[in-house]
Amino acid sequence: MASDPTGTPTDTVTASTPTDTATASTPSDTATANPPYGIAVTGTGVISAAGLGVARLWEAMAAGKSFFEQPGGDGVGPGGLPWPTAVVDGTEVDWPEGRSWANAGKYANQSARWAVAAARQALARAGIPGEDEDVRGGTVMAVASSGDELSDVMPRLASTFRHDPRPLAKFLHDEVPDYSYIRGIPSQLGQFVSMASGFRGSNVAAYGETAAGGTGALALAARLIRSGELDRVLVVGVGAPLTVTGLAAVDQDEPLGTRATTGSGPFDADRSGTLTGQGAAAVLLERADKVSGPVLAWLHGCEVLAAADLATAAALAMDAVLDAPGTAPTAWWAHGAGSVTLDRLEALTVLPRTGSLPVTGSKGTIGNAFECSALIDTALAVESLTRAELPPVGLLDRPDPGLGDLSPVVGRTLPLPAPATVLLTALTQGRRATAAGALVLTGAQGPTTDHGEAHR
Asked: What's the CA gap between 313 and 127, in Å, rounded?
């Protein structure tokens, strides 16, 4: 049972899947052509090595660009590291004006600034100024247990608990500082996003999103809407620059790519390891009958699952989102990070369930931004639905013939016939990974030529 802003109880209603996605682009169409509690995507925002905005990144992918800082002839790249990384130019990221924001800026680190900038893009695209308090709106953050939240305490907690007699629940209650919670209530970054949006209904964080690139936060947001607890949720993720220690740890678990040149991209026969990146992304979800502006796409389902192994987790997550009628995909937006093992696992798990589909992915252009990689991909998939085109896979030259009936988009954009349905998959990084996510999106209308320019 939930309550409206006046405190009156309202019934929780089970979500049903939108069925008429081709014409739902206005409030009246949305309310009549789609059942209540369907979930609309109404805003997206992206910060990446391509710059600010999802349109900028999509167009860079379409042009075949990539943004990696390469190691030199001695095999050493920026910062003395051997791994190419797609780096965000932070000078493009601005901070809101005003007295309250000037004061808040004293406490905002780089991740907070990226989170606010991505959130403001999504809100602007949805036509929400964020000036009014909205208790039926909430925020869900996709963050790592990083310096922004828990890294200062996690090593100490892990070391101390090894020899502590207290039960884990008692230990965490006693030892975790008041400002941070393992399950993420509240989120420090989310407080800044709440300021930007005016959403006061929730401020929670899904930690450990390196496991599923932000799909865990999207799944939580969808549940908050489907349950009737909230009308709209802004999901924001930040993939901050990894430390040398962090990169080395990832590389030890599964080798990272040491080159980012044509032929080393996702699904290529000569790929040699995951390519890394940085970024931030925001996706605004709204209840179908509460939308006041254009609908960009419909979210049919989103699930994140863990299992004994990654292949099983990916299969179960896909089965969960593809189970409903009308969710058969016509295109696939893959995790595809360039990993020798994970690219193969992903292809051999997806294709038996879907058959051959045109497939693309972003990581050959901007790398794996970990905590927010699937949120970036969600924004790009929505952009593809509005443009009715799929951009090519970056740095892909010769598709690996060992990946089954794979049909990657190579070299140029591919028309996406309407009505289109996109399956998006997200995987945990690493050989011993056990969690995966999947979601299904359908287009809300035909191609548009605006692509958020009016709101930008």
From this structure: 37
